[in-house]
């Protein structure tokens, strides 16, 4: 889930959600907080915390927090250009049957069409493609989670017609996802479980009536290797009951997997 700044999120109610969700593994994006403070804020939660902050203070930052044993962590997606960007962290998690689940928390650039920011986004997505192939070849369960800042299809954006020339719904961006779910063989688990419906959306602008009117985007994902996807049993978006009860401009995407009984 994109927390839009962990300190503010915790003040506004994120801790209540964490307690009620009682998840084995949680991934966080846009943490925007120094590493030592992240550990302090989540102290006593029972989670092992793997976090990387961005070199640019107050920007980005991603984390994987797990109640299951973490045996290894890796920062970055393999392109040194992004090593200190606070946009990719992986944790190898040991399941009860001894198998490994590699979980990545990822925050893709928002981008801006026709600017260097969009060039960075494409470079990141290029390397993400490479890393996904490497994870598939490794043979373990793997899931890439987070704010990927792309709506894949018209079902993923309420106002898709008005966003066809804007970052987040450009044909070039969407083509990466075509390849993820086609040639690379990964699965959009939320879409698999939700079916061919509008949304369910995970992000709404803080401006105007977007939240109240459900004028949202589905840009938060769990992309899983094929075998892991088959273990997914249910999915939900924990949308706040009202605008005033939101603790982020995103809502958590929660997926239950039945593994290693």
Automatic annotation (TrEMBL):
Residues the UniProt record annotates as site (Transition state stabilizer): 149
Domain Endonuclease/exonuclease/phosphatase: 2-250
Protein name: Exodeoxyribonuclease III
Catalytic residues (UniProt): 107, 147, 250
Homology family: Belongs to the DNA repair enzymes AP/ExoA family.
Gene3D superfamilies: Endonuclease/exonuclease/phosphatase
InterPro entries (alphabetical): AP_endonuc_1, Endo/exonu/phosph_ase_sf, Endo/exonuclease/phosphatase, ExoIII-like
Domain of life from the UniProt record: Bacteria
Entry-linked Pfam families: Exo_endo_phos
Named cofactor requirement(s): Mg(2+); Mn(2+)
Cofactor note (record): Probably binds two magnesium or manganese ions per subunit.
GO biological process, one term: DNA repair
Residue numbers marked as site, Interaction with DNA substrate: 250
A GO MF label: double-stranded DNA 3'-5' DNA exonuclease activity
Keywords: Hydrolase, Magnesium, Manganese, Metal-binding
Site feature (Important for catalytic activity) residues: 220
Binding of Mg(2+), residues: 2, 30, 147, 149, 249-250
SUPFAM superfamilies hit by this protein: DNase I-like
Organism: Aeromicrobium camelliae
